[in-house]
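haha ok so turns out i had the wrong file open the whole time. this is the CORRECT one, sorry everyone. sequence first:
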Amino acid sequence: MYKVSPKTKKTTFQIKVSEANSVRLLGDFNGWNAESNPMKKSKNGVWKIDLKLSEGEYEFRYLVNHHEWLNDDKAPKVDNMFGGENSVATISY
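then structure:
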């Protein structure tokens, strides 16, 4: 799930994957670079990251343990060129 904060102008992305060893946030905002946005795990198994993004629409996915792609259950989806789907975040302050 993602949440936009107009006050801080930050977007929080989070996903619960308790058994994961690593989760990365990839999207068109970081060139789909797996090294750009590692997420931090909380004690309750929720992985989280805060980003400052400009207003607009961004496609994104979560990369779990360097090989499993997950989408955001709450976000809209669009088809990608690999025959799957990407999640879409709409950022508006």
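The longest strand covers residues 56-64.
again sry for the mixup
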